[in-house]
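REQUEST FORM: STRUCTURE PREDICTION
Request ID: SP-0412
Submitted by: Lab K.M.
Chain count: 1
Length (residues): 240
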Amino acid sequence: MQAVMSNATPTAFVAGATGLTGREVVRALCEGGARVVAHVRPDSPRLDDWRARFGALGATVDATPWALPAMTDTLAALRPDWVFALLGTTRKRMRREGGDYETVDYGLTRLLIDAAVASDARPRFVYLSAVGVSAQAKGAYYAARWRAEEDLRQSGLPYAIARPSFIVGERDEGRPMERVGASIADGALAVVGLLGGRGVAARYRSRRAPALARALVRLAAAPVGDAVAADGFDLFAENR
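STATUS: Completed
RESULT:
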């Protein structure tokens, strides 16, 4: 990790820091010597816990409200080199807390893009999308993420978009069906790989969160246009 980063200490702002991938990105950045600001929503009932948890890694917690003026001011003050957008919701969380893919997956990502632009800091914006996202993909989840990708492409910011398949690891909220789905998919893809479909198998196999996080950090630091691999496979759609 340290070999990727320059001698100057980069500053990273991580939105979605409390999620499975976000926690691992914070850890990987801290281990690599970056100055890390982990965003936690101000109304989180676990805000103090996250301050202690991330503080132990060497990160600072920011609790800026999800409002454009406030987020713009925060990014203008921090002037991060990298902004990680690792945001998303699930059906289970929507039933429990409200919200939807349009509000969270798209809306918060768009707000963060707009804040990064308005801040004049011009950070590299690393967006965690998902495999299968395209203009033709059906469903609210894919539509929200495609809109976020398109907005990022049009933003004028330097950016990278990652599209992994299943992300596996220990989550705060259990997702047993996701684990089962990843296991079944990986088994089927192993057969596909043996039959000559190595490219398909590499694209759709699950990734463990720590490996994905390390790849995202490498992607943030990589020269524009360079491919970055996770677990030996290229999983990134764009790097500009």
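NOTES: The mean pLDDT is 83.
Reviewed by: T.R.
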